[in-house]
Specification:
alpha+beta; 7 helices; six-stranded antiparallel sheet; 6 strands
């Protein structure tokens, strides 16, 4: 069983300045501010949720899925739907991993709803106004393993990619 999570920064469609409107977007689906929404109902494959920052939207599988096969269509559909909904705010999903001019020390806005106690604790411990916490987008892939032997095989396969991961995933040619 696998899980997939995609995080996107919300930005102004005309200036690309970041826009802390994730709560408004989630409210448009749920009818109230919520940490997590199910745009296709409980029977759908994907959910949308907030993250630490008010300008980040996460798409994720609701439950573990047997395979990553077919998830590209599911997530493409969710991205297209969110993109259409963001138009009313003059916003869009930023198609890169890190905002090039955001100043997190000055502009970061922590999620002020629901699980805000958790995020405030993270901030008090880790200082979340830095680029590594508030100015990033990421992909999380949860891969299964049943025992130590499978974990070792998975770890060894992933370990081969670690030296080239920056080159494979960089949103900049530099």
């Amino acid at each position: 069983m696998c899980g997939l999570y995609l995080e996107y920064m919300l930005v102004d469609a005309s200036t690309l300045d970041f826009m802390p409107v994730c709560d408004r977007l989630l409210k448009d689906i749920a009818g109230k501010v919520s940490n997590e929404v199910f745009p296709d109902g409980d029977s759908g494959t994907a959910a949308w949720s907030n993250e630490l920052a008010l300008h980040v939207l996460e798409f994720k599988t609701i439950n573990p899925v047997p395979s990553l096969h077919g998830l590209s269509d599911v997530f493409k559909s969710q991205v297209n739907r969110a993109s259409a909904m963001l138009e009313k705010y003059g916003a869009m999903l930023m198609p890169t991993a890190m905002h090039p001019w955001m100043d997190p020390d000055r502009e970061f806005k922590i999620w002020p709803h629901g699980s805000m106690e958790i995020y405030n604790r993270f901030d008090s411990i880790f200082g979340c106004k830095g680029h590594g916490w508030s100015n990033l987008q990421s992909v999380h892939i949860n891969l299964p393993f049943a025992d130590n032997e499978q974990f070792i095989k998975l770890h060894n396969a992933i370990r081969v990619l670690i030296p080239v991961m920056s080159g494979l995933t960089a949103s900049s040619p530099f």
